[in-house]
Design goal:
Blueprint (H helix, E strand, L loop, with lengths): L1 E2 L5 E8 L5 E8 L14 H4 L1 H31 L9 H31 L16 H18 L5 H13 L2 H9 L8 H6 L9 E3 L16 E6 L7 H11 L1 E5 L19 E5 L11 E3 L4 E3 L6 E3 L5 E4 L11 E3 L5 E3 L21
Antiparallel strand pairs: 1-2, 2-3, 4-5, 5-6, 6-7, 8-9, 9-10, 10-11, 12-13
Helix pairs in contact: 2-3, 2-5, 2-6
């Protein structure tokens, strides 16, 4: 390693000539001076006070637009409600709420970026890296940096700008809070109790969905699967029917009896290999409706949870948190399949308050 006459380092590198013989070549590494920062172009808001004031007015206007849009999203939730009688009403509800929330987020985002781009101090700088520490001198310097940043951004000085930003940001989560809060009505029963009680009861026949035809045990062959509802469900009114069906839907299957691994406490819940399980997935409530005859697995098409029917529908894959609830069944005097009782646990998704207030 040596230096050339210009102060550059000379490095050696192995190379080969055309005849294939090894040789040594010298590569000169030129030294360069630090070019520094390019000439900085100043913004019009730095040199023209009127432009600065106009930019501030526009940014304040954007923050107020965000506030108004957040309020609009809340109002839209009530002005364009979702009607159970007209499912197309969900379009208007989602459209106007979405417009409000999107505009609120867009306006506050654009306003914040514009504040940084046009009003905060515009100065290029470079700073050497150093080890951080917690010494008094460092802490003092950090405080000075924050004070300088505050002065340069104008956060404390530009009160109208600052307060409009704070107001817009505070209003942003309000539509979500209102929408989520409205999902719970204090007059409703506790969700654990609601999901623990369905139309199934002792002696209620299992009938086909949606025809309502009763099912005899002899109709269920090995490998077959039936979508089942409780008898009498179709006699309910529209809204009541939908609510009751959402909890009571069942999938009925028949397996070879030697394939069932029944726990002692559940002996007698099946009938000659015929078993019935809730169709409501224990993940987020999607309908479990895909039955694989060879493996005896149930599949939820929403998030791919799989349940093993031979082992009380235990979860063998996917995000479901617990097995599907089993409906105890038997036959009546006419050979029709009937329920022995309701489910012995809440149906539907697993949620954290399932066991808080009820011993189920």
């Amino acid at each position: 390693m040596a230096e050339d006459e210009h102060g550059g380092e000379l490095r050696t590198a192995n190379s080969s000539d055309r005849s294939g013989n090894s040789g040594t070549a010298l590569i000169a590494a030129e030294s360069f001076e630090d070019p520094g920062h390019p000439e900085h172009g100043h913004r019009v808001t730095d040199s023209d006070p009127n432009k600065e004031k106009n930019a501030q007015r526009w940014i304040v206007a954007l923050f107020w637009v965000s506030l108004v849009a957040s309020i609009f999203a809340i109002v839209a939730y009530f002005v364009w409600p979702i009607s159970r009688e007209d499912i197309t009403s969900v379009r208007g509800n989602n459209f106007f709420i979405g417009i409000g929330i999107a505009l609120a987020m867009l306006a506050v985002g654009v306003g914040t970026v514009a504040w940084a781009k046009y009003l905060m101090k515009d100065e290029e700088m470079s700073e050497a890296r150093h080890k951080t520490g917690a010494s008094p001198a460092t802490a003092k310097r950090v405080g000075e940096i924050f004070a300088q940043a505050d002065a340069e951004s104008g956060f404390s000085r530009r009160k109208l700008l600052r307060n409009s930003l704070i107001t817009a940001v505070l209003a942003l989560p309000l539509p979500g809070i209102v929408l989520l809060r409205d999902l719970y009505n204090g007059n409703n029963e506790h969700p654990v109790k609601l999901l623990s009680e369905t139309m199934w009861d002792e002696g209620v026949r299992l009938v086909r969905d949606p025809s309502g035809t009763p099912i005899k045990a002899s109709d269920v062959t090995v490998g077959s699967a039936f979508h089942v509802i409780p008898e009498g469900l179709n006699d309910l009114g529209h809204d009541e029917l939908l609510n009751a069906k959402a909890k009571a839907v069942v999938l009925l299957m028949r397996l070879p009896e030697d394939r069932l691994n029944e726990r002692p406490e559940r002996e007698g819940w099946s009938y000659h290999g015929i078993v019935a399980y809730s169709k409501v997935c224990t993940h987020v409530g999607c309908p479990v409706a895909l039955y694989e005859q060879q493996t005896h697995h149930l599949l939820c098409p929403c998030h791919q949870s799989q349940f093993d029917v031979t082992n009380h529908c235990e979860v063998i894959f996917g995000p479901a948190g617990r097995p599907l609830p089993q409906l105890p069944i038997t036959v009546d005097n006419d050979g029709y399949l009937v329920a022995q009782s309701d489910f012995h646990e809440p149906v539907g998704p697993t949620f954290w308050e399932r066991r808080n207030d009820y011993n189920v």
